[in-house]
Amino acid sequence: MQILTDYPVKMKPVRRKRKTVKHEWRNATEVAQYLHVSKSWVSTAIRKPENPLPVYPTYKENPSSIRRQFDLNEVDEWVLNRR
């Protein structure tokens, strides 16, 4: 079998589709129910100096924030990595 090389081949750039990350935002009460723990446990997990529970806004940035939001995807990763 002969390879034909006498005509130009135009390479098409392949664009990969970005996988959209779906954030599932929850408040502290819902995260406590999700993890089967108390709300006070969640509040102490936020304040831990090493490996704190991921939260927005972070506790260091705004310690007085009442409206904290948790991303369930990050909470799941945090639970898997803390063991």
Question: What's the short version?
Answer:
It is built from three helices and two strands; from the N terminus they run βααβα.
Task: Describe this protein's structure.
Helix 1 packs across helix 2. The protein has 83 residues and is mostly helical. The model has no long low-confidence stretch (mean pLDDT 85). It has a domain at 25-81. A two-stranded antiparallel ribbon has the order 1-2. It has helices spanning 28-35, 39-47, 72-81, and strands at residues 25-26, 70-71.
Overall spatial form: elongated
Main sheet: strands, sense, barrel: 2 strands, antiparallel
Q: What is the chain-wise order of helices and strands? A: EHHEH
- Helix- and strand-based class? mainly alpha
Give the termini separation. 58 Å
Tally of helical segments: 3
Unreliable residue stretches:
none
Beta-strand content bin: under 5%
Provide mean pLDDT, rounded. 85
- Strand order, biggest sheet? 1-2
How many strand segments? 2
Helix content: 25-40%
Rounded Rg:
23 Å
Protein name: Helix-turn-helix domain protein
Question: Could you name the key traits of this structure?
Answer:
83 residues; mainly alpha; two-stranded antiparallel ribbon; elongated
Chain-wise SSE layout:
Elements: E1 25-26, H1 28-35, H2 39-47, E2 70-71, H3 72-81
Antiparallel strand pairs: 1-2
